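Why predict the complex rather than its parts? Because the way molecules touch one another can change local conformation, and only a joint prediction can capture that. The input here totals 571 residues.
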Amino acid sequence: MIISVASGKGGTGKTTIATSLALALKDVQYMDCDVEEPNGHIFLKPEIEERISVGIQVPEVDESKCTYCGECSKVCEFNAIVVIKEKVLFFPELCHGCGACSYICPVDAVDEVKREIGIIEKGKSGNAEFVHALLNIGEPMAPPLIRKEKELMDSGRTVIIDSSPGTSCPVVEAVKGSDFCLLVTEPTPFGLNDLKLAVEMVIKLNIPLGVVVNCSDIGDRKVWQYCENVNVPILMEIPMDRKIAEAYSKGVPLIEEVPEYISKFHDLYYKIENRVREKKK
Amino acid sequence: MKQLTIISGKGGTGKTTITAAFAALAQNKVMADGDVDAADLHLILNPDINKEEEFYGGRAPVMDKSKCDECGICIDVCRFDAIHDYIIDPISCEGCALCVHACPNDAIEMEEHLSGHWFISDTRFGPMVYAKLGIAEENSGKLVTLVRNQARLIGEEDGKDLIIIDGPPGIGCPVIAAITGVNLVLVVTEPTLSGIHDLERVLGVAKHFNIPGMVCINKYDINLENARKIKDYCKDNNIEVIGEIPFNTTITRAMVAGKTIVEFDPGIITDILKDMWKKVEMRLEDGVKE
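Output of the joint prediction:
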């Protein structure tokens, strides 16, 4: 089973939930798909065993063959390759690596070479397998790196995917294909607004979902009203606790700081399992 | 006209709270919400929308099944695994159009694709431009750029001195779009190991694009040792730490009330924010490139 953890609003506790769930369940694969700002390693302290460089295929033009016909530039939807008179300009950050330029080139002048955009690190954290990826500084595009990372998914185990905040492409890439999506929110106007966007996104992806309300005793009660109205279950509530915030600041996982939460995370898993089973029926 | 972007790397450190406070404190400015996939600034600034426009972020392929003879070429050439059983999955599709060019029967065409909306509005603190990216849509960077361009046009027309941009979390394309060419970024961080890790990465991005940065530490008293580490790190890298905000409940209560901290509680947090704003203003006036 693949469980993804997302949120809409940042800083609501995705990584807290994802890492504690991974630790409570033990034999899982934890996959940090927040490749821009991954934090799971701070809590799971994995031993990294393997590093994989990830690149996308980008064009390399052989100017001895090029006739400057401009076909490559015409087909590129991203304006990543431009032909001006007798010169081909390439803007690597804009390139999606789709291969259209090399496909279309009538004289076979466009080769493709790998350009690194980030790295994947794989290792062990106790019984759990750990995977995360780091987008290189200055690189704009996270989705290709997330796609590569997800190819390492071990479908024989329970997989826990930690996503980045928001609702756009990197989050969609992380969440899509999962059996269940857990949305972590806080009961504040920002938390609710971004939860609504995240719920719409998960519904669009046709994935069953549930909500965890973190810092559940701050703010107001509108998150509960909303969840009831749209029929989304609240599976767990975690009250505000300065001790948890302080533990988080030091990289101590929630269930290590407050071991009473171990059973709550087991409950959370059973609730998710039941909902996934119901959906499959 | 100067431009300031508030970013954080890590989400939920308090970008929008601080941006909203600056909106209340700054004179003669335009506000722009550069977080287009989870915009929140409007929840505090409560804008009156003057103009709503559609955002066409890119083109998407549409297949004419009557022309398709299921030869399989489109499926073979697509690097994003977006075509299954001759149905294009809009979620996986990158919009590269390779299938369009490869199809021998011209059965696929690109069509303009509505991917969000943007708004020009008035708030009690002046004009604001913001946007709403459609659910699970792409091209957030393009929409951020559009929001910034619109804010600049308003600023030029009305003779404003400054654009304040509320940035998105992360370090990827929308962040790059939100900070390219601005005069200064303020990074809001927190004294957690995650906060520090993400701060270093996002400062790396600012440096990569040659943009000067300042830092403020929210909830600094959650971990004084980490707050110290941040200050040391900033000192080593010649980055000014302009303020430290204590862990408090005022920020949440102000948010629930739909107000900026400055309006909600003219106490110690407001004093810190005013002091921070003064430092930003001074830096914008003399310390950064035009």
